[in-house]
Specification:
Elements (H helix, E strand, L loop, with lengths): L41 E5 L5 E5 L23 H50 L2 H5 L21
Length: 157
């Protein structure tokens, strides 16, 4: 501690204890007559200690406005608009998958037709158009030529 600074001491015996303003301050004097027309309207408001005290109406705080009652009905888990978006997304995905699958099947059928079925059709047409002589095992055409050679020898000697 510093020796040059005197110590400050509070004397609690002379200090008044905290006493909120008594209501006697607001009591009207009995000797003074006050007319209601001379005095403005007075309202009673609670003070900081919970007591009701009079206050001129024009100085009083505005009254609290009661809020409207809230609607407490339960809301759906998902917003209906969000449900529509989800449904559209799932439906669009299913539609796209179905269209893609269908297009793939058509392409597979065309590829299969060009490589397999078209070959068998071409072989069938070729077999249908070949002459029957080749299919019977005979060689040549269907015209039979018979050649008879008759040789006579004459000796005139």
């Amino acid at each position: 501690m510093n020796e040059n600074v005197p110590a400050l001491r509070l004397d609690t015996s002379t200090a008044p204890a905290h006493d909120p303003a008594a209501l006697s301050l607001y009591a009207p004097d009995l000797a003074v007559v006050e007319l209601a027309a001379e005095r403005g309207p007075v309202v009673w408001v609670p003070d900081a200690y919970g007591r009701m005290v009079p206050m001129p109406k024009h100085l009083a705080p505005p009254p609290l406005v009661r809020p409207e009652p809230r609607d407490l009905t339960p809301l759906p888990l998902l917003d209906p608009v969000a449900q529509r978006f989800i449904g559209a997304g799932i439906g669009g995905g299913a539609l796209s998958a179905g269209v893609g699958y269908g297009i793939g099947e058509v392409i597979n059928a065309v590829a299969g037709f060009s490589s397999g079925a078209a070959m068998w059709i071409a072989l069938a047409v070729l077999a249908w158009r070949t002459p029957r002589s080749l299919t019977n095992g005979r060689s040549g055409s269907t015209v039979h030529i018979r050649k008879a050679v008759i040789k006579r020898s004459h000796f005139h000697g």
